[in-house]
Amino acid sequence: MPGMQKGDILGHEFMGVVDEVGPDVKNHKKGDRVVVCFDIACGSCAYCHKGLHSSCSTTNPSGDQEALYGLKSGGFFGYSHLTGGYEGGQAEYVRVPMADVNCLAVPEGMPDEKVILLSDILGTAWHANEMGEVGPGKNVAIWGAGPAGRVILIDKEVYRLEYAAKKVPGVETLDYSKKKVDAELRAMFGDLQGPDVCIEA
Question: What are the protein's UniProt keywords (predicted)?
Answer without folding.
Answer: Metal-binding, Oxidoreductase, Zinc
